[in-house]
Amino acid sequence: MLDTDLFTPRPTLTSPNLLARALHAFGQNAPSQAEIWNRLTQSFTVDLDAVAALMPRSEPEPAWLKARD
Asked: Per its UniProt entry, which superkingdom is the organism in (predicted)?
């Protein structure tokens, strides 16, 4: 949850190169992708579709069926 004033302007990242650099910088010490999203959106105004296109896709773990005896 944002704890800053919503009416305070934040810098806007529109360039894919700058957006990729910001993602790399935030990803250096972030424990999860959710934390990267949180840090990025608290610091900048970004196009969320562009961010999603640059971030690696997280695939769900497969649910394996039990083997029959």
From this structure: Bacteria
Contacts of 27 (CB under 8 A, 6+ apart): 36
Domain range for 37: 12-55
The total number of structural domains in the chain stands at 1
Domain assignment present for residue 25? The answer is yes
Print pLDDT tens along the chain (69 aa): 455 566 778 888 888 898 989 888 988 888 888 898 888 888 888 888 888 888 877 777 778 878 776
Whether residue 26 lies inside any domain: the answer is: yes
